[in-house]
Write a structure and sequence with these properties.
By secondary structure, this protein is mostly beta strands. It has a domain of 156 residues: Jelly Rolls, CATH 2.60.120.200. It contains no helices and 16 strands. It has a 16-stranded mixed beta sheet that branches. The radius of gyration is 20 Å and the shape is globular.
Length: 237
């Protein structure tokens, strides 16, 4: 039997690619955006590439009290990439430190299908929120390595029977609920701003905030390279 090579990534995020990511709109927001006050967000989504396209997701205060915020989604892009059951997502993020910042990597399709790779709020500085909204499972994961300004490595396996989360290489949660075999959803990466109902809003002196995603990729067991072992006979003498 020929040895099996590691799976190829089916997505290596190029946030600057308009074919891969759409900026500043999402159907996870009412009417596609730009605002979502019912979800306790001060967001005003913008397509300006300075807010997201370099992998640094920014938010800046507006005169009307909302915040211009960066969001990227694969929904509606030319490639229209979707994560599917069995896929594995890996990402490195740098967490924000300004109160009111609400960074997240998550999935969405047709009004739901949401899996939160992570959510973070600096008022709980050592806590990541890990959630399966498809089948109602979540964990508040506390970790001394999680802190404002810290780099954190995340890995999520979207298993049909169990969604599993790793943080900095350690398995921290396997929900034993999963997403089902036919699950699929688009990816969203964004920085929201809390309005104050569940987490404190930004202090009056804050005018901007950011979080960083230096790397993001998705692996799939459906896409593998097979090594071909060729036996070459020695030359005749």
């Amino acid at each position: 039997m020929l040895p099996e090579a590691p799976p190829l990534p089916v997505l290596t995020a190029d946030f600057g690619s308009p074919a891969q990511w759409v900026a500043g709109r999402s159907w996870a927001y009412p009417d596609g955006g730009p605002v979502n006050p019912d979800d306790d967000k001060l967001d005003h989504l913008v397509a300006d590439p300075a807010y997201s396209r370099d992998g640094v997701f920014r938010a800046r205060r507006r005169p009307d009290g909302l915040w211009d915020t960066g969001l990227l989604t694969t929904e509606g892009s030319d490639e229209d990439f979707m994560v599917r059951a069995g896929d594995v997502l890996e990402a490195r993020v740098r967490l924000p430190g300004v109160l009111g910042a609400w960074p997240a990597i998550w999935t969405w399709r047709d009004g739901g299908q949401e899996i939160d790779v992570f959510e973070y709020h600096p008022d709980n500085p050592d806590l990541l929120e890990l959630s399966n909204h498809v089948r109602d499972a979540h964990l508040y994961h506390r970790d001394p390595a999680v802190a404002p300004g810290a780099f954190v490595d995340l890995r999520v396996e979207f298993g049909a029977r169990s969604v599993s989360w790793w943080v900095n290489g350690a398995l921290v949660f396997a929900d034993r609920r999963g997403v089902g075999r036919r699950w699929h959803a688009h990816l969203i990466v964004n920085l929201s701003v809390s309005a104050g109902r569940y987490h404190p809003p930004p202090p009056p002196e804050a005018t901007e905030m950011s979080f960083e995603v230096p790397a993001l990729r998705v692996w799939s067991p459906r896409h593998r390279l097979w090594r071909r072992v060729i036996s070459v006979p020695p030359p005749r003498r």
